Amino acid sequence: MSLQIIDQGEQKISVKLQGLPLQYVNALRRICLNGIPIFAVDTVDIYENTSILADEGISHRLGLIPLKTELSAIQTNNETDKIVLSLDSGVATETRTVFSNELKSQDDVIKPVSDNIPIVTLAPNQRIKFDAHARLGRGTEHAKWNSSNIATLLETTKDDEHILTVETTGALEPKNIIIAGVNELSYRLDSFKQIISDLK
């Protein structure tokens, strides 16, 4: 049984897996896609919104902004912790777009993966002010918590050899998705074995 990195970049990683049954490799693929907890905006307290976009629309857009997540946060796996990201646009003097770089996070790491994600366009004399609460979650609950855009599995010409390719949303480094995925799969297998043992 072995795992070998064959291609690695800022957004994508491909690893060769040998000596593992297909069902385990496919389970790892699914975990890398939507089974690893990452931060995403879950609830929003809107104090003022005079833009053309309804409060629900603002909240939806904020939920879909990928947030950087530390691997250590996943390992502690406290999904009740929340991080607040605040924004106060002030009163617009001209038509302008509010971007993700205006979100002020209370955490130095957990912040948008890009500064250039549009949130809303304000006309003159319009304003938006809110606190967005982000928490750890999994893509099995909602797609906004997917750690990967894609996770594909290819067979090679050799028996029991597969190529797993994972492309990150930006929340985690690609290699950390693989590391967290292997740890999660190991944890689930151990838990399942314990359940079977208890049945006996």
What does this structure look like?
- It is a single chain.
- The chain is α+β, with helices and mostly antiparallel strands and 200 residues long.
- The protein is elongated, with a radius of gyration of 20 Å.
- It starts with a strand and ends with a helix.
- The protein folds into two domains: 2-36 and 147-199, RNA polymerase, RBP11-like subunit (Gyrase A, domain 2), CATH 3.30.1360; 39-141, DNA-directed RNA polymerase, insert domain (RNA Polymerase Alpha Subunit, Chain A, domain 2, Beta Complex).
- It has helices at 22-34, 55-63, 71-76, 174-199, and strands at residues 2-8, 12-18, 38-49, 82-88, 96-99, 104-105, 118-122, 128-137, 148-155, 161-168.
- The chain is built from four helices and ten strands; from the N terminus they run ββαβααβββββββα.
- The longest helix has 26 residues, at 174-199.
- The strands form three sheets. A four-stranded antiparallel β-sheet has the order 1-2-10-9, covered by helices on one side.
- Helix 1 (22-34) crosses helix 4 (174-199).
